[in-house]
Amino acid sequence: MNKQHLNQLLMMAAAGYPDVLAVLVEMLRKYAAALGLMTPGLPEQLAVPNGVAITDSGVPLYYVAVKRRNEQFRSPMAFGQAVQEALDLTVYENCLPRLVLVRVDQLPGGYVGLTLTVGG
Questions:
Q1: What's residue 120's pLDDT?
Q2: Is the pTM of the predicted complex or chain greater than 0.85?
Q3: Under 8 Å between Cβ of 104 and 114
Q4: 73 with 21: CB under 8 angstroms?
Q5: Which of 7, 53, 62, 114 has the fewest CB atoms within 10 Å, measured from its CB?
Q6: What is the pLDDT of residue 89?
Q7: Which of the pair, 51 or 7, is modelled with greater confidence?
């Protein structure tokens, strides 16, 4: 893959970034309490600066950080499964492409980092 093609893919991913954040905000408005997360006021509150990346195979990744309300999930795997289920319900209800949770990171200051991609 040449650099021009990679830049084109990155621009396409960045163009979809606000939509990914909008879906995440909608999901949090409905399911934040069940997930032990804070509900954001605006999608921009979630965005990690330069929060879009492209893998070597051309898959866009979206990085966001969400403030935790409490630690109700002891297992990161159980937390990730609950987030994925909430995302699935949100995209299904709104007839949107599937968002897939790729990774969950514990961040300082009571935040959790989510890495998402579009598709299956």
A1: 63
A2: yes
A3: yes
A4: no
A5: 7
A6: 96
A7: 51
* Three-class DSSP labels, the chain: CCHHHHHHHHHHHHHHHHHHHHHHHHHHHHHHHHHCECCCCCHHHCEEEEEEEECCCCCEEEEEEEEECCCCCCCHHHHHHHHHHHHHHHHHHCCCCCEEEEEEEEEHHHEEEEEEEECC
Q: Which of 82, 85, 77 is nearest to 103 (CA)?
A: 77
Distance CA 92, CA 39 (A): 20
Task: Look at residue 3 and tell me whether its pLDDT is greater than 80.
Answer: no
Find the distance separating the first CA and the last CA of the chain, reported in whole Å: 22
d(CA 43, CA 20): 9
Please give the angle made by the CA atoms of 56, 60 and 62, to the nearest 5 degrees.
125
